[in-house]
User: Fold Carbamoyl phosphate synthase small chain from Streptomyces vulcanius.
Amino acid sequence: MTTSTRGTAFARKALPAVLVLEDGRTFRGRAYGAVGETFGEAVFSTGMTGYQETLTDPSYDRQIVVATAPQIGNTGWNDEDDESARIWVSGYVVRDPARVPSNWRAKRSLDDELVAQNVVGISGIDTRALTRHLRERGSMRAGIFSGEAVGSETELLARVQAQPHMKGASLYEEVATKEAYVVPAVGAKRFTVAAVDLGIKGMTPHRMAERGIEVHVLPATATEEDIYAVSPDGVFFSNGPGDPATADGPVALMTAVLKRKTPLFGICFGNQILGRALGFGTYKLKYGHRGINQPVQDRTTGKVEVTAHNHGFAVDAPLDQVSDTTFGRAEVSHVCLNDNVVEGLQLLDQPAFSVQYHPEAAAGPHDAAYLFDRFVSLMEAQRA
Ligand SMILES: NC(=O)CC[C@H](N)C(=O)O
Assistant:
């Protein structure tokens, strides 16, 4: 018999590992996934499920993700749920990894997939204590070091403190597609959308395609000419990693689209870019919103929805007044009920809106799917 997944996982688990935070706090555990070292911004995600979608979300580039759910890996890794072609998190922190995955779709264990993609993780640490620490002190730079000879803590701390900050990081070009591609409409084609890829999640064009939209996904470096070469009924700006304050190119591109009054929809990074195009600022949240259980109120209907989030930055726009912008009146359409952070923007005088969270919801509750229908309505109205 060949070596089982279980056997190799046990062998790796015996190796020591340490998580070092930039403020000097350390957590000792066991190696998980690939053995080695990695750096990134330590952030926590409160999703109870959906780790495969989280790990493959390009917006997590250069982040070490801490799972607050204590058991991770129970459903293994399948061939269908990836949100992009690879794992993007720079490290993964879990408390109690599954020894044996059990799911009819699982093709291998999460541990094996982390090894195959060379993603360094750590297990067996008190993720509740770590999460409380990050809530109190804020997201911060960190390193995971595993194996027999990991060096002194002083030396490791110095290496963590030498890493770049997330504030000021420009990462979207690194993760976005280099070549344009088309996601065909499911059934009869009704609309064409140009989607600017800043780190797009695979489920997003899919949610548009199932509404009869042919989606032309364009690289982050696309120009106004590239967008209008596909004769779009609407333009979409995707989610993406890094600090929106660095995204001057996408802000200029979106400004050009707004000038033409083409129906526009943005998600997450796309919401921050709309905020900037309208003249609002963006800022870094203390510890961000990550997970699939965040309450958001749609202020246009008053309804509350449970939503999927992954953002560390937010738009600084006034909650209770309509703002005058270059593109007419704008208002905050959605707000997070945990902390009143701006979760959506809409223009009142032309067809453009965006949300800070993830209506494509992979993984996640589908409460916010209506936003794709709103985009369709804007395109229908424009056509009429
Ligand atoms: N998922 C995203 O698009 C995240 C946007 C941005 N990188 C943030 O952290 O706020």
The chain is about 25% helix and 30% strand. The domain at 172-383 is CATH 3.40.50.880 (Rossmann fold). The first strand starts at residue 16 and ends at 21. Residues 59, 239-242, 244, 268-269, 310-313 surround glutamine (CB under 6 Å).
